[in-house]
Amino acid sequence: MKNSPQVLAKGQLWKMKDAYIQIVELGKRLIHYKMMKQLGQMRVRTQMSGIESMGLYLKNNRARLVTKACAD
User: Fold this and answer.
1) Phi and psi at residue 50, in whole multiples of 5°?
2) pTM for this one?
3) Which of 7, 16, 20, 47 has the most neighbouring CB atoms within 10 Å?
């Protein structure tokens, strides 16, 4: 079964085997995200990466979309 690639957007929550990634902000080239071991984890710093790098990271770690983007 072939999955179509998901478009990254602000507010998405992705689940991997042992972590979650929440997208905080999305620019033209960079993405700000929070990586958590558990949902609702407090005191998690926001990190930054290239959008293409994050897409590959999510694909390689077989991440699943848990929460869709928020409507702005």
Assistant:
1) -75, 145
2) 0.82
3) 20
